[in-house]
Amino acid sequence: MTTKPNFPVTAGSIVVPYGHVIGNEKWRGSELAQKLQGKIRLIFEDGLGLVDFHLSNRTCILYISEADLVAGDEFKRRLVRFRNASSLGGIVIVEKTQISDQYFLAVQKLVVLELGMVLLPVANQGEASQLIIQLVREHSRDPNSNPFLRKPCSQLAEPSMFQTVQQIPGVGKTKALLLLQQFGSIHRLCNASVKELELVVGQTILFPLRLRHFAMETGFHT
What we know:
The structure is a single chain. By secondary structure, this protein is an alpha/beta fold. It is built from eleven helices and six strands. It has helices spanning 31-36, 66-71, 74-85, 101-114, 125-141, 153-156, 159-166, 173-183, 186-190, 194-201, 206-218, and strands at residues 20-24, 41-45, 53-54, 59-64, 89-95, 118-122. A six-stranded mixed sheet has the order 2-1-3-4-5-6, sandwiched between helices. Strand 5 (89-95), helix 4 (101-114) and strand 6 form a beta-alpha-beta unit. It starts with 19 loop residues before the first strand and ends with a helix. 30% of the residues are buried.
């Protein structure tokens, strides 16, 4: 019987140079790293523990692959341990594929509702590299303007806003929280595209129609 290594959550002394990304040494030579090279300044370091990439001194990425999802619950323990022990702003990038799609709702509930972290689904490492490049560029311009670093769940779950979203047919407490976490306001929710909505509620024909009807009745649609 082998003993799993007890990795540190993250290296507390990590300082990310402006405009750079520090990547975990395990990603060296990967498709993701190759696609980042030349687009951003990428530095590899040992000792990052559970963190895959540091975007800044206070923001990092934890990457959950299709293989991680299929393998079992180890990735859940990793996320919980990170959240419990780190004050960093964690962004979770998860591979949502035909194989891993069946696990996505459970991951979404854990990451967004239980841990209060940002969840960004991607199809593959190539798409993940584009996302990371966008995050770095946005963060370099203005950390406060980053569209992926949204308000905490406690702010999003304002009672009046929360109750309003639940009035949309077919939306319960869980889905209301997920929608507010994703879009941040009722106005943005009501003006979201079908593709954006599917990232939260899955592929469905009825929900976009119900949302449009709700938006027209309440005046949130532009």
